[in-house]
From TrEMBL:
Any one cellular-component term (Gene Ontology): cytosol
Cofactor(s) listed: FAD
Residue ranges occupied by any FAD/NAD(P)-binding domain in the UniProt entry: 281-619
Family matches, as CDD domains: TPK
Name used for this protein in its record: Thiamine diphosphokinase
InterPro entries, alphabetized: FAD/NAD-bd_sf, FAD/NAD-binding_dom, GSHR/TRXR-like, Pyr_nucl-diS_OxRdtase_dimer, Pyr_OxRdtase_I_AS, Thi_PPkinase, Thioredoxin/glutathione_Rdtase, TPK_B1-bd_sf
Top-level taxon: Eukaryota
Length: 697
């Protein structure tokens, strides 16, 4: 099943006329000829492949005067499918210096006598060997009963062989005459060949590979696993170059990072040259958040071939996540779940007034809540990936993508206005939807604080927390933690929730205080220093800049705003202009950037609201304009929005300040209402003191 190839493990070796693979080569290959090639050893040495129809053998050689020494094989026959009818397999087994078999493998060997020589050792728990086979082999080989059920029979067999090697398993030497000039710099050593093991059930295959890895720890020998289609070996720790000669090798070569530290595997040349190849699409979408997903899926439904590139740069504390963007992973979804957890706690307080007796409010478990939230996040991420796969699977792969969404998990960068470098992707149209990430202050010890990117994934309770900021993220976070019973200080430098109506904001802040948050105005953080596992915070007066106080917290959370994520995109190469003050991408009403074939949607676009539903709809409409002949533009006016503080704030339309500026204060009428929600009447909830509605006409 393997093609005839000569492998030279020393770069100075002269190539055999048939072919040559470079040092450290390794492959799984296919052919109609009966030939086996063993290569990829841990030690450099010379190797010659002898190949005929009846004799197929690959041996290590070393020149010593006029004699060439041959390192012989030790073989293990496993209880798996091995193509013993091929002369090559029988030859490998019969000429082995010593033959070992697992108990199940012995049944296969005896069943093919006299073609196959009997084993020298049969080892295992003896639960698979037939009694008639065991009786027949008793006088011809050593039967070793190894009842240990914590190890596979293969692992036990390898341990037994390792002990044989330590006892001094002798090598056989003989003279051979070759017409080739031999070169060698290595040391001759025996090897172990496992026949079968990787051609049956997947779990058995992985168990055999695990035993291969284990063998490298117990013996200084090269161990290979052979079956009808694969050659598998373990590479020691270090750097390797693995090359496949396409003229003489078909099939694939795979590398599994197995039981080791993080490893980078470069797959150049195994199936295609990723560095120089270009994949063509109708549309490239960069950013797998709400806007990017909606645009990708809508475009694919219109028949476009779509590449969706999603890469998440880890936070300074190493937090990262999958597809779905901020909302699904570190925003709307986890925030609403934790907000609701606080509401549930409050409802328990009201239970007895509604007739529930013997209700006891237990202690809240942050760890349990985070697990539930993270499970939901991961489930959503899986759903998004399945949805993309379904879009892709409905179309046929011919020579290019015809419809569907191909997901690339990578950080993208522009080469020009049509080309994106991950591998290399090209499309006539490109959409940017990379969103925003939390901003860190430029103060000493800023990295000792975290952001919302980290909070929802933290398995440890934040404990006493300082939330810094006046944004909706700051107020929502402070309220959520306070409702969960944690001590919270909210530090507001100036005016909270600036884009919102300030009459409403006053009620929101009073509600925060009522729920236990301590709101501090007029101060800012000057420094965050580590104090054991605590954070010592120095406060400065905003007006004077002088240090005015210190306090110690378990957690400091920065929530002072969010910045665009396009630093790695190389926007200049594509001719994309950004706003100098906000760093957001400048777009027109049709979402088009200064590069006419590139569009930007969602939070990264200048002037767009930071709202998930707005990004979703903008992506859908853009896909319709690009691939369905639509002319409809996104209307960003009168989009409802909600702030999920303990007293939730919902709004639509202009604030009073905006209305007075646009229409004149004398031309608007304002109606106020302070009210008590009906469900608050029975428990006489104090929140009713802060419930408020405001209407302007």
């Amino acid at each position: 099943m393997f093609k005839t190839v000569s492998a030279f493990a020393d770069n100075r070796s002269r190539p055999h006329p048939t072919s040559a693979l470079q040092a450290g080569s390794l492959a799984a290959v296919h052919s109609e000829k009966d030939a086996i090639v063993l290569f990829g050893d841990k030690k450099p040495r010379f190797r010659v492949v002898v190949s005929t129809e009846n004799v197929v053998f690959s041996q290590d050689y070393q020149r010593t005067g006029g004699t060439v020494m041959v390192a012989s094989n030790v073989c293990i026959w496993l209880n798996g499918a091995v193509e013993a009818e091929r002369p090559s397999w029988a030859r490998l087994w019969n000429v082995a210096q010593k033959r070992y078999s697992t108990d199940g493998g012995a049944n296969r060997i005896v069943g093919r006598e006299p073609e196959l020589a009997p084993p020298d050792v049969v080892l295992g728990d003896m639960d698979s060997i037939l009694s008639i086979v065991a009786e027949g082999l008793k006088s011809r080989c050593l039967l070793v009963h190894a009842p240990d059920q914590d190890k596979t029979d293969l692992t036990k067999c390898l341990e037994y062989i390792a002990q044989d090697f330590k006892k001094g398993l002798q090598l056989m030497y003989f003279q051979v005459f070759l017409l080739l000039e031999l070169y060698s710099t290595g040391v001759v050593a025996s090897r172990v060949l496992l026949l079968g093991g990787t051609s049956g059930r997947f779990d058995h295959t992985m168990a055999a590979i695990n035993s291969l890895y284990y063998s490298s720890k117990i013996m200084d020998k090269d161990v290979f696993c052979l079956d009808g289609e694969n050659l598998t070996c373990v590479l020691d720790e270090g750097e390797y170059v693995i090359n496949v000669d396409r003229q003489h090798v078909t099939g694939t070569c795979g590398v599994i990072p197995f039981c080791q530290r993080p490893t980078v595997v470069t797959m150049k040349g195994f199936r295609w040259d990723l560095a120089s190849s270009v994949s063509e699409f109708d549309l490239i979408v960069i950013g797998g958040g709400s806007g990017g997903l909606s645009c990708s899926k809508a475009a694919s439904e219109y028949g476009a071939s779509v590449a969706l590139v999603n890469g998440v740069t880890p936070s300074p504390h190493g937090t990262t996540w999958g597809i779905g963007g901020t909302c699904a992973n570190v925003g709307c979804i986890p925030k609403k779940l934790m907000h609701h957890a606080g509401i549930v706690g409050k409802e328990v307080d009201h239970a007895e007034t509604y007739g529930w007796t013997n209700v006891e409010k237990g202690k809240h478990s942050w760890e349990a809540l985070v697990k539930v939230v993270n499970d939901r996040i991961k489930a959503n991420s899986w759903i998004y990936r399945v949805q993309l796969h379904k879009k892709f699977a409905t179309f046929q792969f011919i020579t290019q993508w015809i419809g569907g969404v191909k997901l690339y998990t990578a950080i993208a960068s522009f080469i020009d206005n049509h080309t994106v470098k991950i591998l290399t992707l090209r499309a006539p149209n490109i959409v940017l939807a990379t969103g925003l990430r939390p901003r860190y202050p430029e103060i000493p010890g800023a990295d000792n604080g975290i952001t919302s990117d980290d909070l929802f994934w933290s398995v440890k309770s934040p404990g006493k927390t300082l939330v810094v900021g006046a944004s909706y993220v700051a107020l929502e976070t402070a309220g959520m933690l306070a409702d969960l019973g944690l001590p919270v200080d909210l530090l507001i430098r100036s005016r909270p929730l600036k884009p919102f109506d300030q009459d409403c904001v006053k009620c929101v802040v009073e509600g925060l205080k009522h729920h236990g948050a301590n709101v501090i105005y007029g101060r800012e953080v000057g420094e965050v220093a580590l104090d054991g596992d605590k954070r010592k915070v120095t406060f400065k007066d905003v007006s004077t800049g002088q240090n005015v106080a210190n306090d110690v917290y378990d957690t400091v959370i920065w929530a002072m705003g969010r910045d665009p994520q396009h630093g790695t995109l190389n926007l200049a190469a594509a001719g994309i202009d950004v706003d100098s003050s906000s760093d957001r991408i400048i777009v027109g009403d049709d979402d088009r950037t200064s590069a006419r074939n590139i569009y930007a949607i969602g939070d990264i676009a200048l002037g767009r609201p930071e709202l998930t539903p707005a990004a979703i709809r903008a992506g859908q409409l853009l896909a319709g304009r690009l691939f369905n002949g639509s002319k409809e533009l996104m209307d960003y006016f009168n989009i409802p929005t909600t702030v999920f503080t303990p007293l939730e704030l919902g709004t639509v339309g202009h604030t009073e300040e905006q209305a007075a500026y646009l229409f004149g204060a004398e031309n608007i009428e304002v109606y106020h209402s302070h009210f008590t929600p009906f469900e608050y009447v029975v428990p006489q909830d104090d929140d009713s003191a802060h419930c408020y509605a405001k209407v302007m006409v």
